[in-house]
Design a protein that fits this description.
Structural class: alpha/beta
Radius of gyration: 23 Å
Largest sheet: 2 strands, parallel
Number of helices: 5
Order of helices and strands: HHEEEHHEEHE
Number of strands: 6
Strand order of the largest sheet: 1-2
């Protein structure tokens, strides 16, 4: 076996071995407590701009510029990394169902950035709370009737 063939076989074996290993998460945070997360959600005044479906939360002292509803029945759950990103980088993806001026100024989210205030533990609690408020459901499949002439 020449060097080129040996090299190709080695690369193939490495690729096959790598494909058999389960994917590693990009990051892993500790488990959060949804009850503590709900308390933090209120104490950080998230209710100024956010409602949570099917949950009565205390009214905010100051109303925000827009109400964005979170939680409820959805056809695709937000992933843990998506929820974390939404909290720590609110400008990453702005609400599409609203006019830009309602949710952003100069392309930046109007949501307060809590990165210098909130601890990682508090973040994990809030994300656990948000995760617990979503319920996935399967959209009914559309069945079309085929008509023949």
């Amino acid at each position: 076996m020449n060097k080129a063939t040996l090299y190709a076989v080695t690369l193939t074996m490495v690729a096959m071995t790598a494909a058999c290993e389960p994917p590693r998460p990009e990051f892993a945070l500790p488990e959060g407590d949804p009850e503590k997360g709900q308390q933090l959600f209120v104490s950080y005044s998230c209710t100024s701009c956010h409602t949570v479906r099917d949950l009565d939360l205390p009214e905010p002292e100051i109303e925000g510029p827009v109400k964005v509803s979170l939680g409820g029945r959805v056809s695709k759950l937000k992933s843990y990394p998506e929820l974390v990103t939404s909290v720590i980088n609110p400008s990453h993806q702005l609400v599409k169902r609203r006019r830009a001026e309602e949710v952003s100024q100069d392309g930046e989210s109007l949501m307060t950035v809590y990165n210098d205030v909130m601890t990682v533990t508090e973040l994990t609690h809030i994300v656990a709370f948000l995760e617990s408020r979503y319920q996935e459901f399967e959209r009914p499949k559309v069945r079309y009737t085929i008509h023949s002439d």
